[in-house]
Amino acid sequence: MGTAQQQDRHVGKKRLLSLLTAAAVTFAASVAFVTGAGPAAADPVEECTATKGAIVAVDFGPFGGDVVRGCDTTPTTGYELLHEGGFTTEGTQHDGDGFICRIGTVSFNSGTQYPTPATEDCVLTPQATAYWSYWIASPGQDTWSYSPLGAMSRKPQAGDVDAWVFGGTDVGGSTGRPTFTPDEVRAGGGATPGPTGNPTGGP
């Protein structure tokens, strides 16, 4: 075999090795992306205080669950607070992720998101009689206000409490308020109410 042929074969082997290495790296990155797509690990609720972080509470009562709390010590938006608090969400096909159509958590029914597709297809914006309404309370407030902003636009402050309740309300938020108070779920508030109104421990 001539020197030129040996060089060509050597170059070919190096090129093949480079392609195989690149493919392996791409596959590993893809696996890491897929396996890392789950809910974020929430900060322990006790790490959120009146001057640090914010609490989010989701009422799974309409689906047979309890009120589940989450904490994010450095939330930048209400949407991030919900996700960093340990919850997963799904938006609608019409409005995208900004309109939260389903919410789930590993703390309830193995992470199943509600309402399920059998009840709500999340294609269009859900009716005002059956959707996740968004409520907020500032530090020192023990009454809920219907959030004038969507979760992606709201900027939680230290000591804030957010709540998500499934059901119906009007644009002004005069109906459909959470059945629990901000003090019951805020940092240091202790137990949270279950679907029957009896207190249950936080996550």
From TrEMBL:
Signal peptide range: 1-28
Record has Signal as a keyword: yes
Sequence segments annotated as region (Disordered): 170-203
Superkingdom as given in the UniProt entry: Bacteria
Alphabetical UniProt keywords: Signal
Comp. bias regions, Low complexity: 193-203
Full protein name: Peptidase
Originating organism: Streptomyces parvus
